[in-house]
Each structure stands twice: as C-alpha cells, then as structure tokens.
What does this fold into?
Amino acid sequence: MRLHQSFAAGSGAMGPPTRVGPLRFGSALAVATLLLAACTGGGSGASGAAGTDSGGDAEGYPDREITFIVPFSAGGPTDTVTRLIAEPMGEVLGQQIVVQNVEGAGGTVAAGQVAGAEGDGYTVLMHHIGMSTAPSLYDDLAFDPLEDFKTIGLVTEVPMTIIGASDFEPNTLEELVAYVTENADTVTYAHAGIGAASQLCALLFQDAIGVELTGAPYEGTGPAMDDLLGGQVDFMCDQTTNTTSQIQAGEVKAYAVTTPERVEILPDVPTTEEAGLPEVQVGVWHGLYVPADTPDEIVQALTDALKEALTDANVIETLAGLGAAPVSEDQATPEAHTQRLQEQIELWRPIIEASAG
Ligand code: MLT
It folds into this structure.
C-alpha cells in the first residue's frame, strides 16, 4: 500500500489509535542527507505564489481586525508561535489580530479554508512543514500549496524532540528502540494527524528501526501532551516549542533532539545522531500565507509587519526559551518562503512515494 493512501486512511481528529506503517525509505543515508538539507534550506529567488491581484482592496489596509488561522489545537506549538507574533504584528499594522484554531486532517482543513477565503488580507494562515508534505500525503487535497496562496514570509525554525511519559520504562533512545521493538503491539505514540510534523517524525523513527507502532491521532500536540503527561500514551515526537518546559521540569523523558546539533536550551539531550539514529532528522519551519488573489500591496504590508515582529525582544526571548528562533530578515520574505515551500515539496515527494511497499 502506498504511504499516502495509508495516511489518507488515518485521521487528523482525535480518535481511537490507528496503526500506520513505517516509511520504507531506500537509503537511510540518502534520506538523512536530504533531511539535513531540509533543515538548512533558505535563500531567495522564486516569487510568491501565482495569482492575480483581484482580491481585496489594498487601500487603507488594514482597517479592521485580522484573523490568523492556526491549523492545529490551541495550546500546541503552532498556536504558540502564532500567538507570539500576532501581537507585535498587530501593533505594527495598527489593528488587532485574533487567532482562530481550525483543526483537522493534519492541518489540511485550515489550509483549504484559507485557500477559499477572500484575498483581502483579513484571513491569514500560519502553517508549517506540513504544507509541503500534504500534496504527497493526500490524494484529494482541496488546495494546491503553490497555486492557491501567496506567501508572506518564513517565521521560525523549530527543532523536534523525541520524548516519553515519565513512567514509560525506557530512559534513553537506545532503550526506547529496544523497548518498542520488544513491545510493538502495546506501545502507543501520539501525533497530530496525517501531515503533522509529529506524525512525520514518528514515521521516520519507525522506518529507521523497522518497527510498526500504533499511533494515537489528536487535533494538535497540545492535547497530545496532556495525555502524555497523564500517561495515556507512551511517547511522542514534537517541537521544542511544546516540549521544552516539560523536559526542563522533568515531567517527561527526553530521548533526543532531531537536529544535527544539540539545542542550547536542552544541553543534556543528545541528538538522534549521537544517540544512534542519524536517519531521524527533521526541522520544522513555519510560514504565513494568504489566498492567491490577495493584492501585492497587502502582502507587502504583512511581510513588513512580520519582519518587524521578528525583531521584537519578547518574540526573540520567548522563542529562545523554547529552543527555537525567528528566521533571519532575508527569510521573512515571500521569495524565500516560496523557495522553501518548493524545495520541501520536491524533497518530500520522492521520500513519501518511495515508501510504496
Ligand atoms: C505537529 O505535530 O505538526 C504540531 O505539533 C501540531 C500542533 O501545532 O499542535
């Protein structure tokens, strides 16, 4: 069965655990190399997504409240980043920005909603790496990431961590691998739906160790973390923006970070490479999107506000405390964002398609 078909059979909504087969990549080394390239992507070149400027009226923009749509639950990592930058962006734009969570299907429900919204700059999508994997994961996607949106700019780069419930037996990544291999029928991992970073990372993990585990889907890793803390699920792969404080407080076990280097704020947590699973490397990037017919002047206003918000001391300090960082100014542009999106779509497509059994 092809990976994207098994993915489509899953759910982005919370529900009973589903078993999704591990990715079956060709060369683990090749995949690691590709993922490392993904973690360090960037540059500029391509223009924003295609589309005419027939959307809303740019003059006087914005003259009312703006809504930022988060494709996962409140309290999770995407929500955290969105709320953090919404305030300073609103200050720059002179209007309040409200944050709305539109959960479902690994972020694709929200993306479909924004793709169909009016291109007037009042409905803005925050999304992450899932925007680039969705076209390969879903047969019936209701939107085209490159055609149906204009990009505003990249926002953050966030490492992921592999963590376990405090009473889960394994204490190290090596022990985790041995334990889940031995107990594959009973171990459960939490994730935020097909297309979520948590699911992608967990699948990389399963592929690396050649074991198929049972996933418990949630509408975001905010609620998934609650269940991990309560011991209802055994382990999870999630962004440091949702795991740092629990790791520091000793409320969860930290097995590894999924980046080439250790994360400064979590100095005692080894990298997956140090801990023996160099294939499991993935970095999460976030960006802002508007419908494709949004006028360029509105895109520019949002990009300018984003750039300024990313220099806000509270944004920088809060992200640093969560193991993340704002992108550099040259990455907070439609050109850099579109390039990253294109590169990542191309990166993930063959990896996902190669998983065909
Ligand atoms: C993910 O796994 O993609 C995210 O953690 C989802 C979220 O923001 O809740």
Q: What stands out?
A: Residues 1-52 have pLDDT under 50 and may be disordered. Residues 334-353 form the longest helix (20 residues). The first strand starts at residue 18 and ends at 19. The pocket of D-malate is lined by residues 72-73, 76-79, 130, 192, 196-198, 220-222, 238-239 (CB under 6 Å).
